[in-house]
Amino acid sequence: MKKRVFSGIQPTGIVHIGNYIGALKNWVAMQDTHDCVYCVVDLHAITVPQDPVAFHENILRTVATLLAVGIDPKKSILFIQSDVPEHSELAWILNCFVYFGELSRMTQFKDKSAVRGQGTSVGLFDYPILMAADILLYGAHEVPVGEDQKQHLELTREVARRVNSKFPNLFVVPDAYIGKMGARVMGLDDPSVKMSKTASSDSNYISLADTPDQIRNKFKRAVTDSDTAVRYDEDKKPAVSNLLTIYSAFSGQPVDAIEKDFTGKGYGDFKKALGELVVEKLQPLQKRIADLLKEKQELDAILAEGAQKARDLAAPRMKEIRRRLGLGR
Ligand code: TYM
Fold this sequence. Notes:
The protein is mainly α. The chain folds into two domains: 4-178 and 296-325, Rossmann fold (3-Layer(aba) Sandwich), CATH 3.40.50.620; 202-290, Tyrosyl-Transfer RNA Synthetase, CATH 1.10.240.10. The protein is 56% helix and 7% strand. The chain has 13 helices and five strands. Strands 1-2-3 form a three-stranded parallel beta sheet. Strands 4-5 form a two-stranded parallel sheet. Helix 4 crosses helix 7 (122-137), helix 7 (122-137) packs across helix 8 (150-166) and helix 9 (212-221) packs antiparallel against helix 12 (267-294). The chain is globular and about 75 Å long. The mean pLDDT is 97. The chain binds ligand 1. Ligand 1 is lined by residues 6-10, 18-19, 22-23, 41, 44, 131, 134-135, 143, 145-146, 148-149, 183-185, 194-195.
């Protein structure tokens, strides 16, 4: 029996190369070795305000992006979170097993609530529990994510163990799957912060939807380090190391081979080559996304089938959870 994988992505409009390198590349690769369930987590995205029209377009664009990067609905289950109401139901149940203090310590919550203050939604506070519900509902063994989700995964494991101590073997305790390279792609304008779709400047990230000129310019302007050597050293040369990670992910070449190719050349040449490489790789992807978005009926059919398959897994699991807890009739 293949091991089960679950992962999710928020449909917030921009999918950037950090999402791609840190998570989506692994999602695609795991389809051949695992039984994969992938989800566009629209309920997570409404923890901050969304305009319904733009939001709905973003959901479809995110689905098209997943298909374009290589998620194959014949191999994997691909669906939208709100199509499977069991996620919300399990989140409520798990809420009753998690403490206020634990959620208050989540760094993503602390960062986001620092900006929003008293206007922070309860949904944002509860975000990690819905994420735990996503994962535990499907009995996932492995969860491919970037480094920034590590703390949420630790909480998920803790919740699963806690519930299991009262209701033995109810949940599989999942492992995070975090790649060795690219688990934390940093901002192009500041290598001390992660690449993020909510960054204040769009020079921070390369979106999968950026035009060739935007991509070339963003790499051209990307900050570098003080000396001139194209060499990987995370501590002393964080900016160039980040660019090397991106080059390696897009070219498939190991970092030392890239360092060799650029021996004696400066940052300018390296960043130019990196820009061209990423343009060349993203162009066919962008064409696929645009083509898929024209086929609304086909997208809808894929999502309807995905939702049905996900519910076929989720409904009996939820029935069992209710029974074990003594809920209902
Ligand atoms: P989201 O939508 O922010 O990001 C999707 C995936 O991309 C990874 N990622 C990165 N990886 C490397 N470098 C970066 N700079 C970078 N930025 C983002 C994220 O780690 C993630 O894997 N909470 C999740 C969505 C979610 C989920 C789940 C994930 C909801 N339920 C259940 C796994 C399992 C999130 O906001 O991802």
